[in-house]
User: Fold this.
Amino acid sequence: MRRKLILDVDTGTDDAVAVMLAALHPGLDLIGCTTVNGNIPVGFCTENTLRVLDHIGRGTIPVHEGLARPLARPDFPVPRHERDHAGRYHPDLLPVPPTALRKQATGAVEFLIETYRAATEPVTLVAVAPLSNIAAALALDPTFVERVPELVIMGGGHEIGNVTPAAEFNIWADPEAAAMVFAAGFRRVTLVPLDATHRALISREHCTLLAALGTPAGRAAADFIGHRIAVHDAHQPQGVPHTTPVHDALAVGALVEPALLTTHRLHVAVETQGALTIGRTVIDTHFRGGQPPNCEVALHADAAGFADLLLRSFAAKA
Ligand code: RIB
Ligand code: CA
Assistant:
């Protein structure tokens, strides 16, 4: 049976690869995308998501637009560090053709609440963006936390930050929302932090192989990931030259191939106050806090397995 999921995104290049993987993998049934303020303003996230789905022949998957700003803060905490990742034709639009597809009339938070109220079989929620929509659903529907069978989050970092030395972007961009989500008591939470995504680097050689698949998804993935490599080389070089993490796609990939991640049951909380540490995921790797574990935290990932999964998934002629 195909595994149903909803993907919460701020599309962006790595989100775009995640959307394609979720929409094309034969083991997955992407029943909707929700968008949220993050990498870029939410309207561009929505437009990019629609473009990518149309480009790969999956335009029937509904896209619901969500929150335009963080829950508790008056505006986005600039700078938007990933703006350059978004594409080369327009600073915020991905380099795939425009689409006639339009977002759904129902907003993301309402879609999430209604879908989980009506669900008769498990629907995994995969959040690869700031957690504003998820926190809003929690605030509006006290039963939401019980209705979501599994939540997968790309975010946070234990040894690595990417916006500050202490914090990763998705958590830092709406720390109050993230703190609510980790404290909510979801039944099963898998956290895919930078510690895992930076182990699963994709190289220029992989991009050549992806482009050679000759499919819309293969070529687009090569383009998006190639652009990420250029940005990382310029601003945040990886240990291995000319490579990049493709964070969000790893979180989706682990749904179909859990062995891509090595996880540990740990307690995770989010710092919302510290001047130097705001947005940090405090991951209690040594059980110092006395709190019971609330997450499966991935601290390692299988790089070769991840690259292989992308190549196999994007090879199929849609
Ligand atoms: O830190 C990585 C995360 O931030 C990813 O979800 C990426 O899309 C960016 O938003
Ligand atoms: Ca993202």
In short: The two ends are 19 Å apart (CA to CA).
